[in-house]
Amino acid sequence: MKIIIAGDGKVGLALTRLLSEEGHDLVTIDTNREVLERSAQLYDVMAVVGNCATMATLREANVEQADLLIAATSADEINLLCCLTARKLNPSLHTIARVRSPEYLEQLYLMREDFGLSMLINPEREAAKEIFRLLKIPGFLKRETFAKGRVEIVELRVLENSLLENVSLSRLPEVLSGCRVLVCAVIRGGKVIIPSGDTILRRGDHIYVTAPVAVLSELVKRLGIPQKKIRHAMLIGGGRVSYYLAQSLLGAGVRVKIIEQKPERCQQLASMLPRAYIIEGDGSSQSLLETEGIAETDALVTLTGLDEQNVIMSLYGSAEGVPNVITKVNRMESTGMLENLSVGSVVSPKELCCAHIVQYVRAMQNQTGAAVTLHRIADGRAEALEFVVHKNSRYIGEQLKDLRLKPNVLISCITHRGKTILPEGSSSFQIGDTVIVVTSREMPILQFNDIFA
Fold first, then answer.
1. What are phi and psi of 6, to 5 degrees?
2. Which end of the chain is more exposed for a tag (fewer CB within 10 A), N or C?
3. Which residues contact 158 (CB under 8 A, 6 or more apart)?
4. 189 by DSSP, 3-state: which?
């Protein structure tokens, strides 16, 4: 497809990389000539210097022939005006706007058609939702939801002397005393393995486990992972993610303490979140953290704008025995480096944002049979996709043991009439079933039939 990306910051550059890998015809727009030249050198894209909200710049980017415009500049207002202007020039254009300000949230959902928006994306709000999900069932490093919330893929680390250490996957039901789960991906030595029954789990592996939601609590108990309900959370950094997350936590009855350095932001947070404790101070100060009771808190979430500071504070929180630590990382290329550090769960707002947009792009290409949900797992090195089986799907009703899948593709779950099935050789899928597929292939899986050899 012909896609215009307006804004060549971190999100714009990541989208350029992902969408160019999938073979799209890309045009990037930015006011900064240097960053555009960097993109043009790295990827096969056309670059346009200018204000993306003006007709002249959009025409230079050939907006009339484009299929999709993604407005991802740092200014919400520019993004909205860009989409509005582009739709006037090309009424059939799909548009996606990144809008981050909480003040615009309600009115934009009411005015989506007026602005000509196909999709709104708020990276900070998506990150807050992800963190809230992780804190609801502590013990998992990542949680991805499928099948209308019935099934999840969760990330765990195989620790020394864990029940899982040196266990082959074929023995997993025996080791877990009948708790049925399916390991659909393993990260070992920085590489992703799509496992078989012969795969043996090793200490330090990061594993991705598929299970119905009801089974996850049982899995945590069997593995002996402490699962204390969170009653008090400490958030370091008072940005947008903190605001959205604090709203959800307070609504769930959790006491929230936010540490923020800027006095004016502290005043804003105090007025917006009257039930939260707002502390003005430097969250990287050891004495302040001790004074505010870091050793007694149930959860520490580091949310400043500096990745290095977040990592250091999370390491300190882990050393102080905080049972649940979550680290926000802005630079997506940094997430893989943190695998073996005690920083708890790593959440990247920009990575979440890019995954949602890539899913929308693939759905545009394949209206029938496209993934209804896409999650990038294993630090972006694998994908978990949810498909709905339709009348043109291949091999309906045939046993899985008789099917040939492409290399590095695994069917990890089938949902049939609301019942979740962890597949065996005798399993099959029917029209209307939901099928979750995990793949580490470099070539994207665009529709369900693409998984078959």
1. -95, 115
2. C
3. 164, 165, 201, 202, 203, 204, 205, 206, 207
4. coil
